[in-house]
Amino acid sequence: MKTTLEILSLTFDTSLSYCENIRDMIVEGTKKIELDFRKLGTIEPFGIVYFSNFVKTFSRLRDIELSCIYHDNEGISYAKHMGLFQNCGFDIGKPPREEFPTKEASHIPITIVDVENLRQEARDTYEQVGQIVENYSERLAKLLTSQKDTTLVDTLTFCFREIIRNVVEHSKAPKITFCAQYWPYLRKAEIVVLDRGQGIRNSLNENSTLPDIGTDKDALNFALLPSISSKVAYGKKQKRKSDDFWKNSGFGLYMTHRIAGMGGDFFIASGKHGLQWIKDEKKDHKVRLKGTILRMVIQTDNISELQETLGKFRTDGFALAQELTKMEIEPSTASLMLSKHRSDVC
What is the pLDDT of residues 54-77, one digit of tens each? Predict the structure, then answer.
């Protein structure tokens, strides 16, 4: 017997909800699921990436049959263009791109880039892989906004760079999936990056100087603290050589979540847990994910000069990092430290 699930929109909240509905159906023994897109309305980058990744995972199970129905309309045309259906596993619309975009557009459809290609390009050009990521990040920011040398371009470049670098350096994922959109009339930009790597908890537990982290929730709270990284010895000062500009200092996620916090929205999820910051309000979410997904929504009218903003955040971050090195921090206290810090600096 076939069970039908009506998909009315793919926003942040609805995509999480629909995925839980699908999982519940399968747990209850449903073998045939029909996704009804005939009334599909609003779709956003996170909904496109998270939902399609989830559906694709279950579509590969031998005893589960997934199908879909839809009417051709404006919403469906956009979904086809963004690669939603192909990434779900349905032979409909355009497939995800495999290379960084080269033309200006206010949106970037699902793009799946091979990490090894980035490393090979670095070897071929005798550059650090971080510089290759920087170059592509700047290009993405300029194409997405149709702007050149502006504060918005600088900010988006920084965010793209730090998020993509995080995948390349820590996830052990073979590919990076990303999607983005810029709404000039809403003064809002959304960036989503997903990897199917080892997940944040496994990554941090590779660092023997950190306490053992037993849950995905604790791992997320740890990861957002400054100077916490799978590559950086906890509590030790890092000496940076002149030729080691791209060495990760554990500040990437801390800085990006602070930028999104300027009136925007930050979400990171790994394994079975998701953590969302909306301004200074923190929310926990249940997810089902192999690897990690990160979503940033930036209110572009709240962006000030990037160097000034980053300077303030770095000062705040270094102060917190110094405080952390003076204590034996445990997973259970990481969340409290982060929340207290956010309220103190805002």
Answer: 999 988 877 889 999 999 988 899
In three-state secondary structure terms, 273 is: strand
Across-strand partners of 189?
A: 182, 298
HSE-CB at 125 with a 13 A cutoff on CA atoms is 14
C-alpha span between 98 and 31 (Å, rounded): 32
Q: In terms of residues, how long is the chain?
A: 346
The answer to whether 78 and 44 are in contact (CB under 8 A) is no
Crossing angle of helices 151-166 and 129-145, in 10° steps, is 140
Residue 318: count other Cβ atoms within 10 Å of its Cβ.
Answer: 13
CATH number at residue 121: 3.30.565.10
Could you read off the pLDDT of 79-126 as tens digits, one per residue?
A: 999 999 999 999 999 999 999 888 899 999 999 999 999 999 999 999
CA distance 231 to 210: 11
Whether 62 and 113 share a structural domain = no
Nearest to 252 by CA among 126, 160, 149, 137: 160
**Domain termination site, one of 88, 119, 143:** 88
Alpha helix locations (H) across the chain?
Answer: 12-27, 45-59, 74-82, 84-88, 115-125, 129-145, 151-166, 200-204, 216-223, 252-260, 306-325, 331-345
Collapsing DSSP to helix, strand or coil, 319 comes out as helix
- For residue 242, the one-letter residue type is S
Asked which of 54, 88, 122 is the last residue of a domain, the reply is 88
Do residues 310 and 196 both lie within one domain? yes
